[in-house]
Amino acid sequence: MVRAIRFHRPGGPEVLQIDEIDVPAPGKGEVRLRQTASGVNFTDIYSRSGLYPAPMPMIPGREGVGVVEAVGPGVSGWSPGDRVAYCALHGSYAEARLIDPKHLIRLPDEIDDVTAASIVLRGITAHFLLHDVHPVKAGDTILVHAAAGGVGLILAQWATAMGVRVIGTASSEAKAALAREAGCAHVITGRDADIPGEVKAFTDGAMVGVVYDAVGRDTYVRSLDSLARRGHLVSFGQASGAIPPVTIQEFGNRGSLSLTRPMLGDYIADPAQRDVRAAALFDMVAAGRIKVRTEHVYPFERIGQAHEDLEAGRTSGSLVLTMT
C-alpha cells in the first residue's frame, strides 16, 4: 500500500485527505512509477472545487516526477531506475502509480526532481503559447498577466530571450520585482490598476497584439481594452473565476479581435511534439536563459496549505509537493 492524496467530494482544501491505496505490479503496456514530486497548479484547484468535473474519489495533480520501478510486458525503451516526468494526466499526488509509458518524458541528469516538478507543465505551456497559439517574434510587444506566477515567470523569461518586449502585471510590489527580474520591460502593479491606460502609455498608443491571460474574470475586459486592432486574447486560465458569457459581436466591435482558450492536452497529444517542447525547455534552463524559483516546496502532509496559499495569491513562481 502507498499513500495518495484524494478528495471524495468537491470543496475547499479541507476535502483533501491522505488515503492508503494499492498500486499493483504493472500489467501489459504499463510502467510502475515511484513518484518523488508533483507540481501544484490551478488546474488541481479547479478539479478539487468542482469547476472541472471529475470522477471521485480522485487523486489530483497533473504534473509528476519520479523513477521507474518496474515495467510490464510489452514495454520497451524504459528500464527500472529511469528518471521521468509527465504532465496533463491526473494522479501525481501519490507515492506511486501505474502509467502508460507514452506519457513519460525522460529527464536529463542536470534537472533535479524539484526543478522538474516546477517547470514541466508550466514550461511546456509557455512554449506552446509563444510558439503555436500566438507565435511571437523579436520586436513584438506582449502583455502577460500574473507575470510572477508559475507560468508567468517562465513565459516572461522565454519571450524576453526571443527579443520580445514584455509588459507584465503583478498584484504587489514584491511580485512586480520578480517580474522585472524575469525580463519584463514594464510591470503594471495592483489588482485594480488601469491596465489599458498603462499599456497605451508604454506603447505610445499602439497597444499590444496579444494578451496572455491566466487570471480570467478580473482581467478579461481590461485585456480586451489593451489589444490593438486585430489583436488576440489568449485566455489560458481563470485564477479569479470563469469569464462570463460573451457575444461574438463584441470582438468585432472592439476591432476584429480574436479569443482562444487553449488546453495543454491538445498541444501535446503527439508525444513526439511534446518531447520537442520539453527538450526546448530543458535547453533553456540548462543555458540559464530560464531561471527556476523553487522556494515553495511543501511536504506531502501540507497539501491543504499549498492549495490555500496558491488560491490566496501568497506565492510566486511554482509550487511543488514532495513525497519524501
Overall description:
It is a single chain. By secondary structure, the protein is α/β, with parallel strands linked by helices. The chain is 31% helix and 25% strand. Strands 3, 4, 5, 6, 7, 14 and 15 form a seven-stranded mixed β-sheet that branches. A six-stranded parallel β-sheet has the order 10-9-8-11-12-13, with helices on both faces. Helix 2 packs across helix 3 (150-161) and helix 2 packs across helix 9 (271-286). Keywords: NADP, Oxidoreductase. One of its GO terms (cellular component) is cytosol. It comes from Albimonas donghaensis. This is NADPH2:quinone reductase.
CATH class of the largest domain: Alpha Beta
What form results from the Cα inertia axes?
Answer: globular
Mean pLDDT: 96
Number of E-type strands:
15
CATH superfamily of the largest domain: Medium-chain alcohol dehydrogenases, catalytic domain
Total helices: the number is 10
Describe the largest sheet: 7 strands, mixed
Q: Kindly, what is the distance between the CA atoms of the first and last residues, rounded to a whole number of angstroms? A: 16 Å
By CATH, the architecture of the largest domain is named Alpha-Beta Complex
Gyration radius, rounded: 20 Å
Low-confidence stretches: none
Global structural class? alpha/beta
The proportion of residues forming helix, as a percent range, comes to 25-40%
The CATH topology name of the largest domain reads Quinone Oxidoreductase, Chain A, domain 1
